[in-house]
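In this supplementary section we document a worked example of the pipeline. Step one takes a protein sequence of length 114 as its only input; no multiple sequence alignment statistics are reported here. Step two produces a three-dimensional model, which step three serialises into structure tokens for compact storage. The input and output of this example are shown verbatim.
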Amino acid sequence: MSDHQIVRTELKRCDLYKLSGRFDSSRSQEVGDALRYSMDLNHYHLVLDMTDVEYISSGFLRVLVGTQKEVKRFNRGDVFLASPSQRIQDVLKLAGLSEMFRTFATPEEAVGAW
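The serialised model returned by step three reads:
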């Protein structure tokens, strides 16, 4: 079994990405490629369901920041984080990124915010 998974669901208002597992530096580019796919389709409202994410690396944070800058360019969209664990929230806060992303308790709340 793979130690990570990325599943994209195109919804009416946004693209929902269900992430699970560990996203170290070698896996972060896969997330970037997946998010780039949505942006290539002109989908700039992105929700990352992080309920089952165990670990994120600095590479993952770089992908998040780069994607956020791209989707917010010209006020096109945003990246919402749904259900990040306390550990991941702590990493975002430590990196000074917690204010950069809207965080929601559930994926449904994040999708509904669009």
